[in-house]
């Protein structure tokens, strides 16, 4: 059975819907945004309202009573919004091991003036001492000793840079198959992906083969909500490539059907471009015609600048999956806002424990802000909870409309590739990855098999399925986890199942038990 065709059948997002959030709130958002231009107090009041827990889902927003006070707050909030006028996007660098993700990420920081020549020389020397001469650019992103010695990213590197229109957070994922869980955590925070592919002879082929991480990363990225991909064909300067149009076209033509079958609309969601991450060619400025005469498209910075992503709802119920936490004058949690906004002084819940907390401070990148909206990577200082009482995978959530916490849910699963001789049946155990949750789970019942062609449930009872099958089943976990229905919040309702370090299925939550 053709696995790739089946992934499409799963319709994690159909290519047509362009990954737009299937959310009736969206229409409202557009309206609200327009209103904001004339009536800012509505927005601020809306946020406050969430804070004080007065608003009821679905009700019209109450109007402000004390106009004077609110107007003052509005002015401040307005100022802050102005300062943050550039949109913010999280971009994850994915692709097979050694494709050049860290090198390209490092080069971006160098080209955007964040790393001086002296540091580069220092890295050059350090890389040489480790007999890894060509890795010096990667050292900008690979900051720990193990990564530098082995020349492989282990933990997701994080950095910031800006283009004309956008503030970017770069998440440099590891490509090595042992670190796929780290890659998943990086991708789950991202809006867009830069898929780095090595054009060097033999390297594209190894990455693309079954078992190579090019395919796995693409499938995971799509499942985890990475809406758009820039596919950078890297190492174009390599002597085996030498900016060959033929090689570039070959890679594009092989990748395109695969990207399609993974659910990406290649016309709307995917863009290819050639670069040399090591030399920095076609990155900040377009590649010189004397080097590459045939390329008439954009350079990487231009492409990143123009990329469009679906709108998120700043007025939706607040949801921020926690990816990390630490102690620093209180309890600080880190994560990406998936829905809603947060302001200093807000009362929120840490789910699934239902712990009531208060927001003491909000930090976006390095700076303290009063409020932050969806898509932002934040550090939030909380009072009312001890650091020990929080685990990654918990969700900072609205009080009025908290995220559901469940130990069981119904899901539609696409089986990718089971371990050899394994059968997917009731009793199957795997590790579930959903937003920042990593939890052991068991399939307790297979409910229906879906016909990949008609996408309709098949009549006959299903007891087990094989590779490539699409199946609806009940999934159970031991500890309560926070998930949403995919149809309500795609980012919080899509997941992957892994066994023994291999991704065996991707899925979406279709139903939750009634609370
Ligand atoms: P992992 O983090 O282990 O997945 O690898 P990575 O994708 O981050 O690759 P990295 O940036 O560490 O680069 C791997 C090797 O490829 C290094 O030797 C780089 O110098 C080399 N490399 C990366 N980009 C280019 C390029 O544009 N041209 C050439 N010739 N070599 C490159
Ligand atoms: Mg790397």
Automatic annotation (TrEMBL):
Matches recorded under Gene3D superfamilies: P-loop containing nucleotide triphosphate hydrolases, Translation factors
Lineage: superkingdom: Eukaryota
Gene Ontology molecular functions: GTP binding; GTPase activity
Keyword entries, A-Z: GTP-binding, Methylation, Nucleotide-binding
Pfam family, one: GTP-eEF1A_C
Chain residue ranges for the region called Disordered: 1-23, 44-65
InterPro entries, per the entry: EFTu-like_2, G_TR_CS, GTP-eEF1A_C, P-loop_NTPase, T_Tr_GTP-bd_dom, TRAFAC_GTPase_members, Transl_B-barrel_sf, Transl_elong_EF1A/Init_IF2_C
Transmembrane segments: none
Sequence ranges assigned to domain Tr-type G in this UniProt record: 86-315
Protein's job: This protein promotes the GTP-dependent binding of aminoacyl-tRNA to the A-site of ribosomes during protein biosynthesis.
Protein family per UniProt: Belongs to the TRAFAC class translation factor GTPase superfamily. Classic translation factor GTPase family. EF-Tu/EF-1A subfamily.
Protein name in the entry: Tr-type G domain-containing protein
Annotated source species: Gossypium raimondii (Peruvian cotton)
